[in-house]
Design a protein that fits this description.
This protein has 540 residues and is of the alpha+beta class. Helices cover 20% and strands 46% of the residues. The strands form 4 sheets. The protein has an 18-stranded antiparallel beta barrel. It has a two-stranded antiparallel ribbon with strand order 1-2. It has a two-stranded antiparallel sheet with strand order 12-13.
């Protein structure tokens, strides 16, 4: 195209030269155009005066006609050049627009289909007494999280399918978790504690609005008590699937079926046997029994808009495990493991969206049999038939976050629990009451500075006598924390946050007696913890 423009430019230049010559000839005097001069300098007449005037007129007419024709050709060529230049500019603009549209389309696709999120905390810490590592002091579980270790989750969600004719959406969810206590920069060990916490596919609005189906490995849980880092009602780690309906009436119903097979002697055992075909031994799976868990929950939301949002939830679980055999070698002894069951019922009542981002949740749970221990715990204190059917767990929990006029925010968490195992012993040290309360008050100074203080107390009263002093005692662990921080988020749980942490823990003698001999907490009733922490959560 540039070659064509060059050729046209040359033609214009040539025609312009011709035009200039024609103009020069028109500018000559008539006397010079009406006569010829011979070599001697004499002038010869070519005819009569009339004939000379006619010839001059014809020449003028021809010159003017040639000039007009050339002008028209020049105008036409100039128009073609202008058209070509406009087309070149349009093609450049179109190419840039297409490039931008392609970039924008890809960005929109990524924004529409991909989600990345994370929860994490890192807390380098120390105990100034002897320059030891910082350690969480606790006598109950769960316990206040203020002095717990590092941990991070990386959340990835991809939406491979969106229907063009309905609201059906399919999501693939993966969450990778890292035990932050195994950080290479701290312990020099390349091995890290890594777990896959989520790996499942979920289809939403399948067949009709609100219907959901999913399958895979999943953290399946509801609301938590933040300060205690616990989920007091629905908190399952499951390998299975489920269906649900989340209706436009703000009613949610979910049913789940799942299983686990923990790597312990209660559910799984590998033994060495002599291989009759080859020299030597080989590993054989001798015990392999799964625990099946079914859960159902129904929740209803009320209010909203200009009013607080209220929530009511009912929840239930059923646990079951099959029978099996456990082989003890040297001497060889086979133990029959019976089948077992358990169940759980609970409820939650909550209020949110008041005083900014404030919330309150109240939990109640009653669990029996296998369910009293939780889905990741081996039953202990079982009956003589090795079943856990008589165990029970009663828990009441409270979680709240209050934003007071954007000047102060208050977090509260607490629970009380009564537990009995299945062995039927009334004065059993494994049975009894335990509980914790925790309150954190944070001031708002300027845009970022958030000075805070925290108070908490852990209590434990066993039904039986202490094996140390043969007394029934109430163990207590009290904590006080100074938590000046900078926060880069709005609301009572705004994050990310960087904070300094000084925590002092005070144990009474009954609490010290819960730890083994030579344990630091057995021999020290005051423990100091100094750290600097970062905490975050986000979804993009």
């Amino acid at each position: 195209m540039h070659r064509w423009i060059g050729a046209l430019a040359c033609a214009i230049a040539f025609c312009s030269g011709v035009q200039a010559n024609a103009q020069d000839s028109d500018s000559l005097p008539n006397s010079n155009r009406s006569q010829n001069t011979d070599h001697s300098g004499f002038v010869f007449e070519h005819g009569s005066e009339q004939s000379s005037d006619d010839a001059i007129a014809r020449r003028q007419d021809e010159s003017e006609a040639n000039y007009r024709a050339m002008s028209e050709q020049i105008s036409a060529l100039q128009k073609q050049v202008d058209d070509l230049q406009n087309k070149i500019q349009e093609s450049k603009t179109s190419a840039v627009d297409n490039s931008h549209n392609g970039t924008n389309s890809f960005a929109r696709y990524v924004e529409d289909r991909f989600t990345f999120g994370s929860y994490g905390r890192v807390q380098p810490s120390m105990n100034p007494d002897g320059m030891q590592s910082g350690r969480q002091a606790r006598i109950v579980y769960p316990a206040p999280r203020v002095d717990e270790g590092s941990y991070v989750e990386l959340y990835f969600k991809y939406t491979p399918y969106k229907s063009d004719t309905s609201d059906t959406v399919v999501d693939l969810v993966t969450t990778l978790a890292l035990d932050g206590d195994n950080l290479f920069h701290y312990d020099g060990d390349w091995n890290a504690g890594i777990a896959i916490r989520n790996l499942y596919v979920e289809a939403r609005n399948l067949w009709f609005d609100g219907f959901t189906v999913w399958a895979g490995s999943r953290m399946y849980r509801g609301d938590d008590i933040y300060l205690l880092d616990t989920w007091p009602l629905d908190n399952l780690n499951t390998y299975g699937g489920g269906i649900g309906w989340h209706g436009k009436t703000r009613t949610n119903i979910d049913i789940h079926f799942g299983t686990n097979r923990l790597k312990n002697d209660y559910q799984y055992e590998v033994v060495d046997v002599v291989n009759e075909r080859f020299v030597g031994k080989q590993d054989v799976v001798f015990l392999d029994r799964q625990r099946f868990i079914t859960s159902i929950k129904a929740e209803q939301f009320f209010g909203g808009d200009e009013l607080p949002t209220f929530k009511a939830k009912l929840y239930a679980e059923i646990h079951a495990i099959g029978k099996g055999q456990f082989l003890k070698t040297q001497p060889e002894l086979v133990t029959e493991l019976p089948d077992d069951t358990g169940w759980l019922v609970g409820a939650q009542f909550g209020m949110s969206d008041f005083l900014g981002g404030s919330y309150v949740n109240l939990f109640f749970k009653y669990a029996s049999g296998l369910a009293a221990y939780g889905d990741q715990t081996i039953p202990f204190g079982v009956a003589t038939d090795l079943r856990a059917k008589d165990a029970k767990n009663v828990t009441i929990g409270l979680s709240a976050g209050i934003d007071v006029l954007d000047y102060v925010d208050i977090l509260f968490g607490g629970y009380a629990r009564y537990f009995e195992d299945a062995d039927g012993i009334e004065q059993d040290f494994d049975d009894g009451w335990e509980g914790v309360w925790d309150i954190r008050i944070t001031g708002h100074v300027g845009q970022y500075f958030r000075p805070g203080i925290e108070f908490s107390q852990q209590l434990r009263r066993p039904n039986g006598l202490s094996p140390v002093n043969h007394k029934q005692e109430l163990a207590s662990l009290f904590k006080f924390s100074l938590l000046p921080a900078v926060r880069f988020g709005e609301g009572v749980l705004g994050r990310p946050e960087i904070r300094f942490n000084y925590t002092v823990s005070v144990l009474n003698s009954a609490a010290q007696n819960l730890f083994a001999e030579r344990d630091y907490l057995r021999n020290n009733n005051v423990v100091h913890f100094v750290g600097i922490a970062a905490e975050w959560w986000f979804n993009i």
